[in-house]
Design a protein that fits this description.
Blueprint lengths: L1 H16 L3 E7 L4 H6 L7 H8 L4 E2 L6 E12 L5 E12 L5 E7 L23 H6 L10
Antiparallel strand pairs: 1-3, 2-3, 3-4, 4-5
Length: 144
Amino acid sequence: MKKLFSSLIILGTLSVSACTDVVSTHGHVLQRATLDDVRPGVATKQDIQNKLGHPTSTGAFDASVWYYISQVRIRRSFFNPVTAQQRVLVMRFDNNDILEKISMLDEEESQEVTLVSRQTPTAGHKLSILEQLLGNVGRFVKKE
């Protein structure tokens, strides 16, 4: 009876611990104190890179825009992770590489991107499984 009770306690503990949330942080962890040191009109690209590190991304059409992206995701047991918090710090520079403007984008300002599921057709013959397996039989015979 004692063994049954102790194994039920162990089983219960393991099953409850499987339901705990796993919190993971991705990207740059931005500290308020570090951001307070960065001032528009004074800081240069090199200053910001020394304090914050390399940006997560730069503008696709404008290299004078830097993005520092951070995300906190929560995963509960076997379910897909849910984004709890997402912040994007946007830094714009002028032509002299001096910081011009800092802005923060939250999750409400994000836009959902729909993926296109089309496939590009390829020309040629589509091989069956049998043709793939037996296609090279006899091709690599040594010629004497």
